[in-house]
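Researcher: Good morning. I'm working through a list of sequences from a screen, and I'd like to move beyond sequence-only analysis. For each chain I'm collecting a predicted structure so we can compare shapes side by side. This is the next one on the list. No need for commentary yet; just the structure.
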Amino acid sequence: MPDVYFSSPHLKYLNQQLQTLEPEEILKWCMISLPNLFQTTAFGLTGLVTLDMLSRINAGAPRQIDLIFLDTLYHFDETLELVDRVRERYPNSKLHIYKPSGCANARDFECIHGDNLWDTNDNLYDYLAKVEPAQRAYAELNVKAVLTGRRKSQGGKRGDLDIIGLDDAGLIKVNPLANWTFKQVREYVTKYNVPYNSLLDMGYKSIGDWHSTSPIAEGEDERSGRWKGTNKTECGIHNHRSKYAEYLLQQEQKKNGEALVDALHEVGLQWAI
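Model: Good morning. Structure tokens for this chain:
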């Protein structure tokens, strides 16, 4: 399938059409229309529903849409246990796991980058644990389009979410369940006995890293347990990539500036001698 390019008017038209379709129909359209299509997932409820729908659409097919999972090295044990159950339930869905560069486990990450980086430098943590691994996955797998688990009812920046859009690097992102509520997602999981994270039975609704995820009270927004007490609402992979490019440039300039100061200081000492 050749590459596909969408202009703004084309995207607007597509969204008008896709808004009228059920998620299964959106997924069928994606499979026919989009090249190099993958599903990105952290095995949240919406992603699991998407995976189950795909397995039903492609029932009997030897290969399903491939999955990309970003293992930040700080997922809950319950999440990693769920990964094993998902692999068993959907054996025809190939899972690609990407970790922070040069790290096999949390100890490796902390030896290189220090302890509690998410507290000391949140932007750098997001880049190293999520953004860079995602970019590496997209490049190595030649990803052109991804299915995500984002929904409007999750709140925050997702309230005006489109079905289909482009990120600032041209990656096509499709949100097939954008118009579904948490209740609809949960009902589907129950109806089809879809495996899910056991933390959901303990008051969690949106589950990410253990250090930035909390259970929520009845009536709170679905994602209010993520980064509680901060203004943060997104984990990094759905922010503009340019945000991190600008941040890295600033860090490099700061590093170069410090090196220049050190060099000038050294020269000054030599002249003093």
